[in-house]
Each structure stands twice: as C-alpha cells, then as structure tokens.
Design a protein that fits this description.
This protein has helices spanning 2-25, 134-141; strands at residues 39-42, 57-59, 62-63, 76-79, 87-90, 101-104, 108-110, 128-131. With 143 residues, it is of the alpha+beta class. The protein has one domain (31-141): Gamma-B Crystallin, domain 1 (Sandwich), CATH 2.60.20. A four-stranded antiparallel sheet has the order 2-1-4-7, with no helix packed on it.
Length: 143
Amino acid sequence: MKLKIKAAIAGVAALGSLLAVAPSAFADGDPSDCPSGYACMWVDIHYLTGGSRFTHLDTYLYRATLPATYDHEASSAYNNASPAQNVYFYKPQKCAAGGSRFAMTSPNGDSDFTNGSPSGNFNDAVRSVVYDSSSLIYDCQHA
C-alpha cells in the first residue's frame, strides 16, 4: 500500500513538472505559419501578435504603406518568398528612396527586432515592404 502511494505521489510530481515546462515549449509562434510566397510580419517578438502566432500581416509584391495594426509596430518577420528572393523592410512609408531599410533573404526570418538585429533599430519602425525587384521598388516608391 505504501509503495502504491509513493508511486502515485511520484507520478503526480512528474506530471506537475511536465505541465510547468509545457507552456514555455509552445510560447513562441512558428514562422512556418507564413504562407509560401509571402513575407509576414508580427507585432510582437517571437512571431506573435497579441499572443497569437496566427495573427500576422502577409504580403507579396509590395506594400507602400502598412495597415494601422502593423505600421510602426512590427517586432518580428519572416520571408517565405517563392522562388527565393530578398524582401526589403523600410522605415519610411512608400519605400522612400534613400530611406533606412534592411534586406531579408528567403527562407529566413528574425524573431526579435528588439535585440539589435537587424542593425539600425527596426523594432516598431517598419512602414513599408517590397520584394527585391527594380520595377516593384519603383512602384512602391511612387505609390
């Protein structure tokens, strides 16, 4: 009888330790939620927006201006362009020529703009996005 009680207590303790670890294992979002052919942005770090991994802005081609929820709010991004090509994230709206920007290769992402990568302090600063194409960049700059 004492052995069964000890085994039950050990089982409960093991389950408790698993439950304590489990939530952190699923705390981050998953960049694979970004559809093939798109670049995606999340408002928070670790591919989350308000705690949801599924709430993100998907874009292809260009966005001269971002919707209010994402304008000056992005803290993580993933480039899932297909075929692989760079995507530029700009600080100024309308992909202003000469404005601060960084390129993200595909498939690649950055889960935390607050940690100094990409360089140039892009956390909560992205205002437009465009795929690496002279004609698309022109279109975005003149939108």
